């Protein structure tokens, strides 16, 4: 069975802090060809589309398009704050390897 991506409370809290839902925006997580390992994540604020999977929490939305969804099965979308910066991160069990920056992966 294919599990949908999971979004952590921390990620929804960050979307709440920046007021994404108040602007009719959602966090879009997509997978595109490219990057140093073959695939790369695109993470941006965007309006939901009709064919998106919508994940909701704390009044906020994270959306994944139907083409990217198989690449993100069972993945966890989180938000992290470290000394080097703060960002949304994806822990993807489907990735066989990833680059050092964590935005590119192979399957």
Automatic annotation (TrEMBL):
Q: Where is the Core domain?
A: 6-102
Question: Which InterPro entries does the UniProt record give?
Answer: ATAP, ATAP_core_dom, FeS_cluster_insertion_CS, HesB-like_dom_sf
Q: Which Pfam families match?
A: Fe-S_biosyn
List, alphabetically, the PROSITE patterns matched: HESB
Matching PANTHER family: IRON-SULFUR CLUSTER ASSEMBLY 2 HOMOLOG, MITOCHONDRIAL
UniProt protein name: Iron-sulfur cluster assembly accessory protein
- Please give the organism: Roseovarius pelagicus
